[in-house]
Amino acid sequence: MNPSAQIAPWLEPLWGGLDFGNFPNAILLHGQSGIGKFAFSVELAKALLCENSSAAIRPCKQCEACHWFDTGNHPDFIALVPETHRKLLPHADYEGDDAPKKGKSIRDDDAESSEKKEKKNISIEETRSAIENLSIGSHRGGNRVILIYPLEMLRSDSANTLLKSLEEPPASTIFILLADRVDRVLPTIRSRCRLLTAPRPNREQGLTWLKKQLSNISGLKASDADIETVYDEQGGAPFSVLSSLIARHNKDDKDELTISIQATRYLLQSMAQGVRMNWLDAAEKTHKAQYGFLLASMQRWVSDLQSVSQGGEPRYYPKHLNTLDGLSKMANTHKIDQFWKSLIQARRHENHPLANRIQLEALLSQYQQIFGA
Length: 373
Prior knowledge:
This protein has 16 helices and five strands. By secondary structure, it is α/β, with parallel strands linked by helices. It has two domains: about 10-195, Rossmann fold (3-Layer(aba) Sandwich); about 255-370, Zinc Finger, Delta Prime, domain 3 (Up-down Bundle), CATH 1.20.272.
């Protein structure tokens, strides 16, 4: 089966290996954040709901089911995602009294009803309601598809409810589960899904795709050097880079990703100071950004520091080779390894931090000590 044009080139082999005639009741797609898993899964949901079984390419984009899906109104598509990702789901491009009612894929929440950080989580009430209603047959007599992302953000009670449905899956119901960190998914859930690993593109492939996307955005200007710098800094995640560059182009200072990128750059500038770093100032000016984003960037910086200290080349920050080389000559190898373990431990609990600022202060203080006597 030919892959859809919506599928990123590096994910086409994964798409081509899917058997739509004998699809499992649950798949768990996992891989690095920002490489196109979400777009892939939305297109997969559309293909599974497509009613043109004779089409050479699915989704056919012509049948009634495809049209319903494109307007965000397919009654058999349920997407359990945080508010931050709802804008990426299919939706109607018109409003008014004649607009069809929203399907179960999106539930309108009172924007004032929860704090900002809660909007990154999947609603417990929505999860419970969706899963409990699975006993009701599908509206169109075909498949019903439930997309959940990020799976690792489910609360324990919601995860247990999901597990019961996976143990006794309702007829014609397909679960598309996505995780950035599969190690954080309950083993009992993993064991009941077919695991699919989403590969990251190689650098040339990712940059080629990214520059093509950027060329289609009117007025957006970014040099190749700038694009490549951001690409490396974000660990080779083309979709994340695209989103950040668009937000920067739109001068959206309130965009969460933009805030995180700006904070990360200040954080790395501070870390580049080594023993002279003002870790209290760094924590103060960055703690409001996404904690996981900051931790990931710190990991990349320390990974490069480890590599350079062992005579290798930096992978994520090649333009900072001289700085990393200088730091490596002052660093205590044992303390670098200890700090790396601290970062791994911090990432295990990044979704539920008690106080980002306090944790950042502790980590940055430990980082500074790497370069002490």
